[in-house]
Write a sequence for this structure.
C-alpha cells in the first residue's frame, strides 16, 4: 500500500518536475527577449538621450511567463505538452459549422460586397474601409498568381503597385488623359516592369528570389524619392484627377455634375460609393481572369512550375516564359490597383509604397491559403478591416489608461494572427485546392501534398 | 532479329545515334568516348554496375547536361535530324520529341493524375488556346482542343489502369501507380523516343510484369522507341531488343540480350571485380 502511494507521488513529482523544467525553458526565452525589449528604455532629457532601467518590469514579465507556462502545462496540456497539436482537437469541432457554409462563402461574400454601400449602417467610414479592403483583395489576388500559383516568392510586389500609381498620376497630370484610358496603360506598364524585373531573377528560387525581390521593391521606391524632376520626390504628386461618372464630375452643383444630372442633393459619399464599385469591379475582373487562367494551359503550367520545375522542363515547357508570364500577369493587376489607388487618394508619394505593404499583401496571400480565391478575400477582410477595428476599441482605454492607443499594437496582433494560423492551419485558411479539370466531380484535394519549389 | 554479321538490326534505321559522347565533371570522366545507336521501334537497355555513367548518358541525351564532347543525333521517321547536344532541355522534348522519366519519381504531387497528363500536353494546348488569349475568351476551337487533350489523357489513364483515380492527387497514389503515371505523362508529350530511368525500381514482381506489358505495348502499338536504364536483369533480358553495357563510362558490350549475357567482359564487370566504385558519379538529373 505504502509502496504504491510512494510510486504515485514519485510519478506526480516527476510530472511536476517536467512541467517546471519546460516552464523554466520558456522563462529563459522570455528573459532573453526581455533584455533588449523591456529591460531598458531610452528617454529624451535636456542633456541628451539616457537609458532608464526597467528591470522590475522585465522580471515581472519573465515571472508571468514561467507561472503561465507552468499552469498551462499542469492544467491543460498534461505534461509533456503536445507542441504540434496545440488546441487542434478542440478547435476542429468548433470549425465544423464553417465547413458546411464553405461552398457558399464565395457567393455570400460577393452578395455582401455588392450590397454594402446600400446597407443602412454604411456611412462614409464604412464605405471607405470597404474600398481599402477591396484594394487589398485585388492586390492579394494579383500576388496570388505569382506566389500561390507559380510558387515564386515575391516580396517586392508593391513596386508594381507604385508603377501603376505613378503611371496614372503622371499621365493624367501631364497629358490630362482620362482614368479609363490610363487604367489599362498603367497595367501594361507595370506588366512590362514585371518582365524587366523578372529577367534577372529567373535562375533564383525560394529564399534567394525573395531577397532579390525585396531589393527591387526598395529600388523602385528610392528611385521615386530621388528622381525629383519626374516624380516630385518626397513631395509626391498632387491634384491627381478623380474619376468621373461617365463624364459627370462629383462636385457641388454646376453643369455636368453628378448631382445636377440626376437631380439629387450633392453628397460627398456619392464619390466614395462610385470608387467602391470601381474597385469592386476591378477586383472581380482580377478574380475572373485568374480563375480562368488557372484552367488554361498557362495556369496549369504555373502550378506545375510550383510543384517541380525540372519535371516541367522534361515535359517541354519553357519555364523562362512561364515564369515571366506569371510575373507579368501579377504585375498587371498590381499596376491597375495602383492607378486606382492614385485616383482614390488624389495624392501619392513614395511613403505609400514601403516594404510593409508588400509584407501585408504577402501575409494576406499566405494566411488565405495559397491559391485560394475565397481564402484570400477572407484574409484581406480580417487583416485590413480587423486591424482597422482595433482603432475603435475605446473600452481598452478604461483598462490600460487614457493614453493607450490600441492601433499601435497593430503589428503585434498581426504577428499573433500569423503565428496562430501557422499553428492551426499551416496551409492557410483554405487548405485545399480544386482541380482545374476533372473527369468526375472534382472534389478539392488537400494541399499538403504539394511539393513547393522542389528540385 | 539478325545478330550475325557486321550490321545489326538497329543499325539499319536508328532513332538515336550517340557518337563519341564524353562527359567530364572537373577531373572526373563519367562517360568516355561512348558510341551506340538505338533502333527505331526497339527497346534498348543501358545497363552497367553502379557508377558506370548510365544516368549521365541519359542526362546528356535529355539535355540536363551539356556533353563535353560528342554528337547526339535524333532522327524522326520523316527523315529530319535533330542534334540534341545543341538544344535546350525543354526543346529536346518539344522539338526533337524525346521524353523522359526520373529515377526518383518527379510527378506534380499536389495536382491530380489527370492534370499531370494535361500539363504534359502543354505545348499543343498553348497553341490551341492561341497563347492563352483565345482560351481566355473561350473560343470554340480551344474547347475542342481541350476535350481532345482530356480524351487522350483518359485513354492513357485507362491503359495504366488509373481511370478511377484520375481526380486524386498524384502524390497520394501508390508507388507503382506513380511509376506508371510518370510513364503515361511522358507518353502524352507524343515522343518518338521514350527514356526511362530505372522504371522497375521498387516494383514488386507483379507490378514489374505489368510494366513489361506496358512497355511492349508502347513499342508495338504506339511505335515509340524506348531507351531504358535498368538494374533488374529479369526486366532487361525479357523485354529488350538490344542491350548496351557500360562500365567506368566506357562501353564494354553491345548486342542482343543473349549475346550480352554470354559476354565475358560483362560477367567480369558484374561479378569479377570487387565492387568499390564511387556512387557520386551517378548524379540525379540537374538536382
Amino acid at each position: 500500500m505504502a509502496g504504491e502511494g510512494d510510486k504515485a507521488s514519485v510519478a506526480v513529482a516527476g510530472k511536476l518536475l517536467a512541467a517546471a523544467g519546460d516552464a523554466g525553458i520558456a522563462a529563459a526565452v522570455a528573459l532573453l527577449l526581455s533584455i533588449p525589449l523591456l529591460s531598458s528604455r531610452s528617454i529624451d532629457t535636456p542633456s541628451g538621450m539616457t537609458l532608464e532601467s526597467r528591470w522590475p518590469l522585465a522580471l515581472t514579465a519573465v515571472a508571468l511567463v514561467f507561472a503561465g507556462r507552468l499552469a498551462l502545462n499542469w492544467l491543460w496540456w498534461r505534461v509533456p505538452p503536445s507542441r504540434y497539436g496545440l488546441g487542434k482537437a478542440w478547435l476542429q469541432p468548433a470549425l465544423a459549422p464553417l465547413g458546411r457554409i464553405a461552398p457558399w462563402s464565395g457567393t455570400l461574400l460577393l452578395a455582401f460586397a455588392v450590397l454594402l454601400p446600400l446597407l443602412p449602417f454604411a456611412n462614409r467610414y464604412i464605405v471607405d474601409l470597404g474600398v481599402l479592403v477591396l484594394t487589398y483583395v485585388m492586390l492579394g489576388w494579383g500576388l496570388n498568381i505569382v506566389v500561390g500559383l507559380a510558387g515564386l516568392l515575391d516580396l517586392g510586389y508593391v513596386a508594381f503597385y507604385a508603377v501603376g500609381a505613378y503611371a496614372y498620376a503622371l499621365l493624367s497630370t501631364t497629358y490630362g488623359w482620362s482614368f479609363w484610358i490610363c487604367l489599362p496603360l498603367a497595367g501594361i506598364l507595370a506588366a512590362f516592369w514585371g518582365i524587366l524585373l523578372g529577367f534577372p531573377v529567373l535562375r533564383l528560387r525560394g529564399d534567394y528570389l525573395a531577397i532579390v525581390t525585396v531589393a527591387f521593391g526598395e529600388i523602385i521606391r528610392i528611385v521615386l524619392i530621388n528622381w525629383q524632376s519626374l516624380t516630385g520626390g518626397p513631395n509626391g504628386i498632387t491634384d491627381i484627377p478623380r474619376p468621373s461618372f461617365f463624364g459627370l464630375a462629383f462636385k457641388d452643383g454646376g453643369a455636368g455634375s453628378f448631382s445636377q444630372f440626376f437631380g439629387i442633393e450633392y453628397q460627398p459619399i456619392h464619390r466614395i460609393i462610385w470608387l467602391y464599385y470601381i474597385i469592386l469591379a476591378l477586383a472581380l475582373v482580377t478574380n475572373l481572369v485568374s480563375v480562368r487562367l488557372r484552367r488554361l494551359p498557362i495556369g496549369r503550367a504555373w502550378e506545375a512550375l510550383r510543384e517541380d520545375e525540372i519535371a516541367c522542363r522534361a515535359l517541354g515547357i519553357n519555364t523562362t516564359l512561364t515564369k515571366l508570364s506569371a510575373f507579368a500577369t501579377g504585375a498587371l493587376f498590381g499596376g491597375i490597383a495602383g492607378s486606382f489607388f492614385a485616383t482614390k487618394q488624389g495624392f501619392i508619394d513614395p511613403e505609400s509604397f514601403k516594404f510593409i505593404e508588400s509584407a501585408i499583401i504577402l501575409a494576406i496571400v499566405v494566411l488565405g491559403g495559397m491559391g485560394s480565391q475565397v481564402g484570400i478575400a477572407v484574409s484581406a477582410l480580417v487583416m485590413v478591416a480587423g486591424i482597422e477595428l482595433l482603432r475603435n476599441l475605446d473600452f481598452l482605454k478604461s483598462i490600460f489608461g487614457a493614453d493607450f492607443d490600441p492601433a499601435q499594437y497593430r503589428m503585434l496582433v498581426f504577428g499573433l494572427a500569423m503565428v496562430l494560423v501557422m499553428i492551426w492551419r499551416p496551409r492557410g485558411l483554405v487548405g485545399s485546392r480544386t482541380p482545374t479539370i476533372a473527369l468526375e466531380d472534382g472534389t478539392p484535394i488537400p494541399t499538403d501534398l504539394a511539393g513547393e519549389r522542389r528540385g | 532479329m539478325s545478330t550475325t554479321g557486321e550490321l545489326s538490326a538497329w543499325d539499319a534505321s536508328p532513332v538515336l545515334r550517340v557518337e563519341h559522347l564524353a562527359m567530364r565533371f572537373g577531373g572526373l570522366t563519367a562517360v568516355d568516348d561512348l558510341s551506340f545507336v538505338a533502333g527505331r521501334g526497339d527497346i534498348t537497355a543501358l545497363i552497367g554496375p553502379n557508377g558506370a555513367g548510365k544516368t549521365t548518358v541519359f542526362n546528356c541525351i535529355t539535355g540536363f547536361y551539356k556533353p563535353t564532347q560528342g554528337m547526339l543525333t535524333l532522327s524522326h521517321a520523316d527523315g529530319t535530324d535533330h542534334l540534341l547536344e545543341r538544344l535546350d532541355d525543354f526543346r529536346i522534348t518539344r522539338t526533337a520529341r524525346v521524353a523522359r522519366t526520373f529515377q526518383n519519381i518527379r510527378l506534380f504531387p499536389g495536382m491530380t493524375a489527370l492534370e499531370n497528363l494535361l500539363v504534359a500536353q502543354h505545348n499543343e494546348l498553348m497553341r490551341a488556346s492561341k497563347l492563352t488569349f483565345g482560351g481566355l475568351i473561350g473560343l470554340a476551337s480551344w474547347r475542342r482542343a481541350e476535350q481532345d487533350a482530356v480524351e487522350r489523357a483518359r485513354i492513357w489513364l485507362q491503359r495504366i489502369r488509373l481511370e478511377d483515380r484520375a481526380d486524386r492527387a498524384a502524390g497520394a497514389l501508390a508507388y507503382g501507380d506513380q511509376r506508371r503515371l510518370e510513364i503515361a505523362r511522358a507518353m502524352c508529350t507524343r515522343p518518338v523516343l521514350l527514356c526511362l530511368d530505372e522504371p522497375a525500381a521498387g516494383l514488386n514482381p507483379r507490378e514489374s510484369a505489368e510494366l513489361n506489358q506496358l512497355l511492349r505495348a508502347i513499342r508495338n502499338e504506339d511505335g515509340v522507341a524506348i531507351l531504358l536504364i535498368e538494374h533488374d536483369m529479369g526486366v532487361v533480358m525479357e523485354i529488350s531488343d538490344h542491350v548496351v553495357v557500360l562500365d567506368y563510362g566506357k562501353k564494354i558490350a553491345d548486342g542482343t540480350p543473349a549475346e550480352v549475357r554470354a559476354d565475358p567482359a560483362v560477367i567480369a564487370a558484374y561479378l569479377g571485380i570487387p565492387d568499390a566504385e564511387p556512387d557520386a558519379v551517378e548524379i540525379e538529373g540537374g538536382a
Observations:
- Chain A has 17 helices and four strands.
- The longest strand of chain A covers residues 40-45.
